[in-house]
Amino acid sequence: MAKKNTLGAVAKRFGITAREARDIATAVGTVGKSVLKSPQEGISPRKAVKNLKKQVKEVGQAAIKGKKGTSSKQLQPNPTSLSQFQSRGGKGYVAYEYKKGKKRK
C-alpha cells in the first residue's frame, strides 16, 4: 500500500513540475514579444524578464516541494486599441498590455 501512495505522490509532483515548466515557455515567448514590441509601443521588457525569473524559480519549488505557482504573465493587445486599429484598416499601431498570471489552486 505504501508503494501506491509514494508512486501517486511522485506522479502528482511530476505533473505540477511539468505544468510549471510549460509556463517557462510562455514566459520566454512573452520576453521575445516584448523585445520586438518595445521600440514602437514603449513596452518595457523588464517586466517580462522579471516574470521569466519568477517562473524558473517556481519550477524549482515545484520539483523540490511540490508547490504550485502562478501562471505566466502574457503580453496581449489592448482590446480597445485593437478594434481601433482594425477600424482604421490596419493603419497605426496596437497598444499592448501585460495580462497577469493567476495563482493555481
Biggest sheet: strands side by side, in what order?
A: 1-2
Order of helices and strands: HHEHE
Question: How many domain modules?
Answer: 1
How big is the Rg?
18 Å
What is the tally of helical segments?
A: 3
Q: The biggest beta sheet, please?
A: 2 strands, antiparallel
Describe this protein's structure.
There is one protein chain. This protein has a two-stranded antiparallel sheet with strand order 1-2. It has one domain (2-99). The protein has helices at 2-41, 45-65, 79-87, and strands at residues 74-77, 96-99. The two termini are 27 Å apart. The protein is mainly α and 105 residues long. The chain is built from three helices and two strands, in the order H-H-E-H-E. It is elongated.
Give the secondary structure arrangement, pairings included:
Layout: H1 2-41, H2 45-65, E1 74-77, H3 79-87, E2 96-99
Antiparallel strand pairs: 1-2
Supply the key terms:
two-stranded antiparallel sheet, mainly alpha, elongated, about 100 residues, single chain
Short description:
With 105 residues, this protein is mostly helical. It has helices spanning 2-41, 45-65, 79-87, and strands at residues 74-77, 96-99.
